Amino acid sequence: MGAIAAVVGPHCEVVLHDLTGGDLDHSVAAIVNGQLSGRTVGGPSTNLGLEVLRDPSTDHDAHGYRGRTADGRELISSSTYYRDHDGVVIASFCINVDLTPAQTALTALSALLPAVRDEVREHPKELVGPDISSVLDDMVEEAIAHVGKPVPSLTKPERIEILRLLEARGAFRIKRAADKVSARLGVSRVTIYGYLDEVRRG
Which of 30, 52, 88, 176 is the most buried (most CB within 10 A)? Predict the structure, then answer.
């Protein structure tokens, strides 16, 4: 871990997650350059950890995908998952590189080359935050943005669609997720559970 971070630089975070207990609030077993995401040992996983626990049989290894920190910095990331002899996922090894230095340099160069087109911004695959609650906040905001309407104007089917998106990403594995989602959507927790039942019944 230290070798990778030393080569790439202080804008490269390297993380080892212990996934044996399924505790995504405290999965960080070791981390280098944790200032990038605000995490330390004992810190949380990301939304990708939720997806692994939701569907552990799938190959979740991914390299060179886009991510985003809680404060909005863009990342380029890779994640590799390790299994025991029984095929159970026990750990993940993740590398997150903050693109801010490169983007700053690109902005300066773009001022000199006005004909260069702006790069199309990719939708982030991974959301990296200092705690699992902030990861959930980002997941909720992305689901609302996907529907494309202000929360006060949402219809019941649109709220159910938001819950379907969150359920598909494993959001409700996070403790007290229903409380946060109900507060953000302006409906009761009982209503959220009712919508979830509809989603899970298909």
Answer: 52
Other CB atoms within a 10 A radius of the CB of residue 126 amount to: 21
- pLDDT higher than threshold 50 for residue 92: yes
Closest CA to 100 of 3, 17, 9: 9
Contact 170, 164 (CB under 8 A): no
pLDDT at 184: 93
Cα(83)–Cα(20) distance, integer angstroms: 10
Q: Mention every residue, 6+ apart, whose C-beta is less than 8 A from residue 83.
A: 89, 90
Q: Which residues pair with 127 in a beta bridge?
A: 68
Please tell me the distance from the alpha carbon of residue 42 to that of residue 91, in angstroms, as a whole number: 14
Distance CA(78)–CA(26), nearest Å, equals 20
Task: Give the total residue count for the chain.
Answer: 202
Per-residue pLDDT tens for 69-90?
A: 888 889 999 999 999 999 999 9
Taking alpha carbons only, the member of 70, 60, 58, 27 closest to residue 45 is: 27
| Distance (Å, whole) CA 132 – CA 11 | 22
10-64 residue pLDDT tens: 999 999 999 998 888 999 999 999 999 999 999 999 888 888 888 888 899 999 9
